[in-house]
């Protein structure tokens, strides 16, 4: 079944406060999972736990050692004042955490950077300084950087927060293309945006409510948002979700 990653009964606490409560999740090859939840419901904590940056107090995470994870942090937190070009930001994605004195990029790093910049479609801005970029261009640059290690699972934190609808569509088109070879997990507090693009949706509110098949149930939304009708009435896709439910009732 090509399972890449398996979380079983994960509980995470900050001090005495439970942030993730008995969360289980399986990621398979070609999965494209969107995790939604309101602000502060533990989405970033879940990603950091998957990345091994936070240690759960109970539960297990199973991942084969050869499976690589790529992380795209919230781009709005990225310091754009650093004097560095798009090309350099992307290339730095190939550097491991170890500090190597007199490090020099290899020809293959340079070639890979060029290929990935082309794949993501940012050739025209590759020599620009990052402080000249729009939000969408910066996000593409950070995705390109995460691809330098050729990850099996690409993990993104709020990839389209504060982007306009054209840039959002652009980013999801890139992710859709990458999903042919990689599993993708992304988190967002914006149910209306991600439900249009991902294959599966899970809702997080300490506990993870998860169903296959990109289907938001009223119960899931209730558990997470408390007021499903309100959320459902604002965007195009949740209407589709609602109408699916109506059709199912008529069957
Ligand atoms: N290092 C920390 N120490 C203590 N509490 C923390 C820490 N990091 C996050 N928290 C708390 O844990 C809870 C979950 O935070 P997290 O960042 O995972 O939520 P989120 O769903 O990603 O939120 P947002 O949508 O606002 O980014 C919040 O109440 C937050 O204040």
Automatic annotation (TrEMBL):
<dbReference type="InterPro" id="IPR003439">
    <property type="entry name" value="ABC_transporter-like_ATP-bd"/>
</dbReference>
<dbReference type="GO" id="GO:0016887">
    <property type="term" value="F:ATP hydrolysis activity"/>
</dbReference>
<dbReference type="Pfam" id="PF00005">
    <property type="entry name" value="ABC_tran"/>
</dbReference>
<feature type="domain" description="ABC transporter">
    <location>
        <begin position="5"/>
        <end position="237"/>
    </location>
</feature>
<protein>
    <submittedName>
        <fullName>ABC transporter ATP-binding protein</fullName>
    </submittedName>
</protein>
<keyword id="KW-0067">ATP-binding</keyword>
<dbReference type="GO" id="GO:0005524">
    <property type="term" value="F:ATP binding"/>
</dbReference>
<dbReference type="InterPro" id="IPR003593">
    <property type="entry name" value="AAA+_ATPase"/>
</dbReference>
<dbReference type="InterPro" id="IPR050153">
    <property type="entry name" value="Metal_Ion_Import_ABC"/>
</dbReference>
<keyword id="KW-0547">Nucleotide-binding</keyword>
<dbReference type="InterPro" id="IPR027417">
    <property type="entry name" value="P-loop_NTPase"/>
</dbReference>
<keyword id="KW-0813">Transport</keyword>
<comment type="similarity">
    <text>Belongs to the ABC transporter superfamily.</text>
</comment>
